[in-house]
Design goal:
heterodimer; A: alpha/beta; Rossmann fold; 3 domains; five-stranded parallel β-sheet; four-stranded parallel β-sheet; 17 helices; 46% helix; 15% strand; B: alpha/beta; eight-stranded mixed β-sheet; 11 helices; globular
Chain lengths: 452, 285
């Protein structure tokens, strides 16, 4: 056990189990949501390997990422030659339609101007190159995701005067199961829409057998190029999708709306309402059925959640709607810890706490060590967050409900949603199972009951 | 048991264009002429430090050789010049790309690994380092116990003194981890008494000394245009004598110190007092 049991010192130069990951991880995540796209890491090979392994382990699937393999020579003379040779080799060997290059700490520090280098390359017919600056000494994996989506849209989308009644949906960093749910809800309106990046049928599809084959999923390039003809941009998750939506809006001249990820009843309601506003009313029989089922379930199990305390540690985009849902269940989101986030997260959460007459400690750009110190002073009933809370959960003997990114020690979870009404139902089940399992464990054998 | 000969390693810094390479090459030439075994190590991506020791010819650099062949052999990068001075150029990336600082670190490490200093039985190694200490790479010769003494070439111009003061900060920083200490200031382009007074005052304020005064001279220019040092092209000139004396002072120099650089505000105030004095002098008061 850690010796420190009270929050005493403020640390500026040290994070212990930080709630942030490298920018390129998010950039690769986003690039793989484009059809026939090869993410390319302009850095040393170890950099790329770490990013690749983390994503692979989250999905328990192999992914492909290429690397410029910058060695000492490149650190001194610049990585231009490596990048040019790499691009040629990638198009020759893996035959992608597009290469999405993300920079690294090394290439950013020596000052490689990736965009200028790529600009000098003569592209084969119908092939594309985009690049995003993703040094990991600023921001987090969400920043990298955001930068790569912005790069894809900013560098590929073409301004169009003719607009169609079509919605361009930019989801935040979520799982393929979530993307499917987001798409299914949008499809209820029988209107035209595109989701970009779209990792469904990528991370949850069979792995291609040949080296120049790609997963069936991913946003088609033609959809990205023609993004300018959409009438509305819908960003789901301010931290990950807000900036790309604003950039696309500025470039192609259509309005954008930024919403929370549709997690929980209210955030899903807001998503549906926004779609309704855009497409007009539609017969939403299935969505109504799901909502009614969810609302009734929430009411029925409310006593089991009432005043149960939770500590949430995850990305800001997940934290806000999740805490809104938890508060709505009657739970107390006692601690909300995130990685780098804008100051808005605090205001948003305080508003939610006030609305539900509850309160919690909100900390951004922090680490799990600090959370553990708080939890030693004030224990909670359940931990909700990514895999790195595992040790914390063991030490404090508090059940951990895995949610967010990365979850590298479990299988199958990315196939199921936490967004939408069905996702909310799944969250309920996960939370309740954790709380009830724990209650059963603590009960004496003669007190164990087969009934709830 | 034979005691290992101590090689005197000296780094020479200063603002760009102040005459570092000219001064260093003349010192190298003078030392060689006096019978010392000398190596001049140019730590500048422009790789022209040793030109005047080799009739204006460029030599292949350590980093270019590394880039082309992935390994570096001694004979590929060490060349002899005037009076047998060993010339080495670190080299570096093209302007605007890569990281020259990392290049200097790599080049110095390669030379260390090759153990050339011991093998060539050198007496003195002179590092001619670009500019002031802009990043960690350019501090390489003065950290990790590579060079022992540092000299800075400076004119009486404020920007040159500013660069020297920055160098002193670098030396102070590394001084408690085995870094080089300051030998003194080589005052360059000193043609009148007030320039001399300014540089003397600066040395005094920062706890160091001026080891030599080099006037601006057309002999240097004509020698350089012939691709030679003044020592080689005009051995009997007044200027050559000045360089010989300077070289002698440096060869005999033994004790260096931690300088006491001025804080930026202090430096500006100090410069302002000199501005007042010069104005007063101009008005003939």
């Amino acid at each position: 056990m850690l010796k420190t049991d009270k929050v005493e010192s403020t640390r500026q130069a040290l994070h212990i189990d930080p709630l942030r990951m490298c920018q390129p991880i998010g950039a690769i995540y986003a690039a793989l949501g484009v059809q026939a796209c090869m993410p390319h890491s302009h850095g040393s090979s170890g950099c790329c390997r770490y990013h690749k392994i983390l994503i692979s382990k989250h999905f328990q699937k192999t992914i492909r990422v290429t690397s410029s393999m910058l060695k000492e020579n490149a650190a001194i003379f610049g990585g231009e030659e490596n990048l040019k040779v790499a691009v040629k080799n990638i198009f020759d060997i893996y035959k992608p339609q597009i290469i999405a290059v993300q920079s690294t700490c090394l290439s950013e520090t020596i000052g490689d101007h990736v965009a200028a280098i790529l600009g000098e390359i003569e592209l084969p017919e119908g092939k594309y190159l985009v690049s995003a600056q993703t040094p990991s000494y600023i921001g987090s994996h969400l920043t990298g995701y955001s930068s790569m989506v912005e790069a894809l849209l900013g560098q590929l989308a073409v301004r169009s005067v003719l607009k169609k009644k079509k919605c361009f949906i930019i989801p935040g960093l979520v799982n393929p199961g979530d993307i499917r749910e987001i798409k299914e809800i949008a499809a209820s309106f029988n209107g035209d829409f595109t989701v970009c990046p779209d990792i469904s049928d990528v991370f949850d599809a069979a792995t291609p057998e040949k080296q120049d084959e790609y997963s069936p999923g991913g946003t088609p390039l033609s959809e990205i190029i023609s993004a300018g003809s959409c009438e509305l941009i819908l960003a789901l998750g301010p931290a990950a999708a807000g900036a790309p939506a604003a950039a696309l809006s500025e470039k192609c001249g259509m309005p954008f709306v930024t919403l929370d990820l549709p997690i929980g009843i209210e955030a899903t309601d807001r998503y549906i309402r926004q779609l309704q506003l855009f497409y007009g009313s539609a017969p939403l029989g299935e969505l109504k059925r799901q909502r009614a089922q969810l609302v009734e379930t929430v009411m029925n199990c409310h006593p089991l959640f009432y005043k149960k305390k939770a500590a949430v540690f995850c990305d800001p985009d997940l934290a806000v709607p999740l805490c809104e849902f938890l508060a709505g269940l009657g739970m107390v989101p006692a601690f909300v810890f995130t990685g780098p986030a804008s100051s808005e997260i605090d205001e948003r959460l305080q508003e939610i706490f006030a609305r539900y007459e509850t309160e919690g400690v909100v900390q951004s750009n922090t680490d799990l060590f600090e959370l553990e110190q708080y939890l030693k002073n004030e224990p909670v009933d359940v931990l909700i967050g990514e895999v790195h809370g595992k040790h914390l959960a063991r030490r404090l003997d508090i059940p951990l409900v895995r949610m967010g990114f990365p979850i590298t020690d479990r299988f199958i979870h990315p196939y199921f949603p936490i967004v939408g009404y069905r996702g909310a139902l799944r969250i309920l089940e996960m939370l309740l199972n954790a709380i009830l399992d724990r209650a059963d464990r603590d009960r004496a054998a003669e007190e164990l009951s087969f009934m709830l | 048991m034979v005691t290992k000969k101590k090689i005197k390693q000296i780094a020479i810094y200063g603002k760009g264009g102040i005459g570092k390479s000219t001064t260093t090459s003349n010192i190298s030439a003078a030392l060689a002429k006096a019978g010392y075994k000398v190596m001049q190590f140019g730590c500048d991506p422009k790789s022209d430090s040793t030109n005047t020791l080799r009739d204006g010819n460029y030599i292949p650099t350590v980093l270019d050789t590394l880039r082309e062949k992935n390994t570096v052999q001694k004979e590929e990068v060490i060349f002899q010049g005037f009076q047998g001075v060993y010339c080495v150029e670190a080299g570096g990336p093209a302007p605007g790309v890569g990281c020259a600082g990392r290049g200097i670190i790599t080049a110095v490490q390669i030379m260390k690994q090759l153990k050339v200093f011991e093998e060539l039985d050198l007496d003195i190694v002179l590092y001619d380092v670009l500019g002031d200490v802009v990043c960690g790479g350019f501090a390489m010769p003065i950290r990790d116990g590579i060079a022992e003494h540092v000299f800075t070439v400076s004119s009486a111009d404020f920007m040159s003194i500013y660069a020297s003061n920055n160098l002193f900060k670098g030396i102070q920083k590394f001084s408690n981890s085995g870094g080089a200490l300051l030998g003194g200031v080589i005052a360059n382009s000193i043609n009148d008494d007030y320039s001399r007074a300014i540089i003397d005052d600066f040395a005094n304020r920062t706890g160091t000394q001026v080891v030599g005064y080099v006037p601006r001279s057309v002999t240097v220019t004509t020698s350089e245009l012939q691709g030679k040092t003044t020592i080689e092209a005009a051995p009997d000139s007044e200027q050559a004598k000045i360089y010989l004396n300077l070289a002698n002072t440096i060869a005999e120099h033994t004790v260096s110190k931690v300088p006491d650089p001025m804080e930026i505000k202090e430096l500006r105030e100090w410069a302002a007092t000199w501005a007042d004095q010069l104005l007063t002098r101009e008005k003939g008061l």
